[in-house]
Design brief:
It is a single chain. It is built from 18 helices and 18 strands. The protein is α/β, with parallel strands linked by helices. Bound molecules: adenosine-5'-diphosphate-glucose. The site of adenosine-5'-diphosphate-glucose has 17 residues, from strand 13, strand 14 and helix 14.
């Protein structure tokens, strides 16, 4: 990398979790794995929240990274996090699959909390240092840092989709959000479409103008591009081959599969993930061909998420009703038609599911990327397995020719595509899987972080 500037990361959550014994542990997950090495090399700092209310514990050093804690009160968690971030922005940015709520009482805490993140960052930044801000909770932070540190190199990456202008235009505070983001030098989106949507909105509602490959705004040039995020492919491939994971996959095939093909869904239980319609697609397939229930089994793993929010309780009810209905009609006392696990699993258990599944069904109504799709490809053997993937997941862009692409709203289409996936011959499955494996090996999360930081540091 060109300079030896320090790197500062600003994200809603810190890269650590508290264990039950009260000790810090590095969080699992690709983002931390991707950024941590850069931070460790550069005496890096990470500004974020611990996930608990009123956690005013100052800074601490853990695993080579300096953590600077932003403390949030209970009422800020309600308004900034549950309210504006997850009740306004999350549904608005996911194609309004639920109606976004617009409340002034949520907006002002969003501004205040963004300012506190920015202030913590500013305290750490000397001139021209690199700052990398993450995600929809912190879209005002780039401009707030720019105001105080005009020469810093500021990057921002949005992990969720940036919506088309027709939807974004609803937001009463659209101009403030755009001006917040335009404080950055590099704006990264999951797909070229997200970048194009942002450029449309910025041209429409601010003074930013496009010229060649950049946006010009207040005398500065801003790079706006797609940087598709990925997974720690070498690590996942290695873990998936361990004796522990292979043995667990074998047990799953014997216990759950018992000679039947396994169709798998793995998602955070979120209304954007299309779990309910996916189950109805499987139900339609069994209705068309009831004997399939003795040849296949559906396993849905759902991670509890945002359980305090009413929409999330509703989607859980819908999913659980669908599971009950399908089993009521198609299960026998000796075998289930659908297995449903509502819990967080250790990553090695998840790998065993990926390895055992003949078909992976991922059908979000809208998804920034969807890392589960990439994890399945990395963890499954290279000569079998089929990926049924929503055309509205960012990952569909990269897996266009390897996956079976579906419209996640189309129950008949899901049923027919699952049927094709279940019946796919091994030669075709192997060819498709090899293409997708090549993709996740070439573009892993390390390459993603490096490509973003290279543009930021140039
Ligand atoms: P998410 O909406 O959370 O992420 P996704 O990209 O699929 O969606 O990531 C989920 C992660 O949770 C995966 O790494 C997976 O391994 C893990 N996970 C899933 N089920 C689990 C279980 N039962 N137990 C333990 N872990 C489980 C947001 C955006 C996405 C974008 C990512 C990264 O919504 O579109 O891909 O950020 O940018």
């Amino acid at each position: 990398m060109a300079s030896s500037n320090r790197l500062l990361t600003v994200a809603n959550r810190l890269p650590v979790r508290r264990t039950e014994a009260g000790e810090w542990k590095t969080s699992p997950g690709g983002l931390v794995a991707a950024i941590a090495p850069f931070l460790r090399d550069r005496e890096g700092v990470w500004v974020g929240w611990t996930g608990e209310a009123d956690d005013a514990i100052g800074s601490f050093h853990h695993d080579g990274i300096n953590n600077r804690v932003v403390s949030l009160t209970h009422s800020e968690i309600d308004a900034f996090y549950r309210g504006f971030s997850n009740g306004t922005l999350w549904p608005l940015y996911h194609d309004c699959v639920r109606p976004p709520e617009y409340h002034r009482r949520w907006w002002w805490p969003y501004v205040d909390v963004n300012r506190r993140f920015a202030e913590q960052a500013v305290d750490e930044i000397a001139e021209r240092e690199l700052v990398w801000i993450h995600d929809y909770q912190l879209q005002l932070v780039p401009a707030m840092i720019r105001e105080r540190r005009p020469h810093a190199r500021i990057g921002f990456f949005l992990h969720i989709p940036f919506p088309p202008i027709e939807l974004f235009a609803q937001l009463p505070w659209r101009r403030h959000i755009l001006e917040g983001l335009l404080g950055a030098d590099v704006l990264g989106f999951q797909t070229p479409q997200g970048a194009a949507n942002f450029i449309d909105a910025a041209m429409q509602f601010t003074e930013a103008r496009q010229s060649d490959d950049v946006l010009r705004y207040q005398g500065r040039e801003i790079v706006v591009e797609g940087f598709p995020i990925s997974i720690d492919t070498p690590r996942i491939e290695e873990q998936a081959k361990t004796a522990e994971v292979l043995a667990a996959a074998k047990t799953l095939r014997e216990n759950v599969g018992a000679g039947r093909k396994i169709v798998l869904g793995v998602d955070r239980l979120d209304y954007t993930k299309g779990i309910d319609v996916r189950l109805r697609g499987y139900e339609e397939l069994l209705r068309r061909d009831p004997k399939l229930s003795s040849e296949c089994v559906f396993v849905q793993v759902a991670v509890p998420s945002r359980e305090a929010v009413a929409e999330y309780q509703d989607i859980r009810d819908n999913v659980e009703r669908a599971v009950g209905r399908i089993n009521g009609e198609h299960a026998k006392t000796s075998r289930m038609a659908v297995h449903y696990l509502y819990r967080n699993l250790p990553f090695t258990d998840l790998l065993a599911f990926y390895s055992a599944a003949d078909v992976m069904a991922i059908t979000p109504f809208r998804d920034g990327m969807n890392l589960v799709a990439k994890e399945y490809v990395a963890a499954h053997s290279e000569d079998s397995g089929a990926l049924v993937l929503s055309e509205f997941a960012g990952a569909a862009h990269e897996f266009r020719s390897g996956a079976l692409i579906v419209n996640p709203h189309d129950i008949d289409g899901i049923a027919s595509t699952l049927e094709v996936a279940i019946g796919m011959d091994q030669k075709e499955a192997g060819q498709r899987m090899k293409k997708m494996k090549r993709q996740v090996r070439e573009a892993d999360v390390h390459a993603w972080a490096e490509s973003f930081l290279k543009v930021l540091d140039s």
